[in-house]
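Exercise 7.
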Amino acid sequence: MIVPALRRELDRTANKEARVRIESVIDWLTTPHFELVKQMDFDGEWSPKMAAWSPDGRRLALADQGAGVRIYDTANWKAVAWIDTGCWSVRHLEYSPSGSFLAVAQETLDLHKPDTLERAFSIDVSTFDMRFTADDRILVSSSTVEEGLLVLSRKDGVWAREKAPRRLDHFFVSPDGKWAAAYSWTDRVDGLDVLDSRTFEKAASFKPGPCDDPVRWFAEYAAFSPNGAWLAFRGFNGELAAVRIRDWEPLQRWRPNGTHVECAFTHDSKHLVTAGDDGIVRAWRCETWREVSNAPLEGRATLLVAPRSGDRVLVLHVMKGRTRLSVYRLFQP
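Solution. The predicted structure, written as tokens, is:
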């Protein structure tokens, strides 16, 4: 209601200075802004390397690769629980879409109940990478060559494993569970393949252009928008690509944050947030892929994660020998 009224006032106003003031207010009201919500510094023996939001955004799990998992209440940012992972390195951390489990992947894949953190299941598979699908199936890339990619599903409280028809090293699953964006060092897959997550048939493939160095353009990370419209992925050279999922049409390729970039879509799928080694967190409007907002960020970003609900994004960044966690809210007045 405010913006239309200001536009009508702008049409009626002839005074140049008044028009400038009104235009600046309209611009501020229609542009998203970053607000710093929380910062925490870690400079002791425990320093987080990975993070996972619970589906409702009320819990945040942080893991040091070799020193356990802390659970934080995001209402007051107090540590409320601890998971001892022993001497094993944590390789992946993720809440299931239903919120039924918190997965801690290491030499075994342990599934914890999120309320009590009691270990509900321990699956004997040495995990290289893993992702939940929308129906709480689990795709697991085993570090054991003979096992390769496994599909874990639960029926009547029992987990069964099935070997997938192809091997993947790293992959990222769309929120609806339909697609898996994957790359493989083992199979030397340049760029990125998108597969049907049930049949593992290839739906699309994105390769480096003729002027790129293929060795540096292995797709290193991929993110799907929650509404199923967009796919974004980055290469080792810091280049970011945006793809329209409806027809797998590449829309944009650019370097938003130097030679390294982390990215995540906001929960409403309106913006792609990026951070890297240039000391800035940026928001890009989906469809136009133009930068609409930014905020200063000290040091180099190593992780960027957005929850499935709410308007926050989390950035882990390294500065002066310590790790800082910064949580921003991207809001539009």
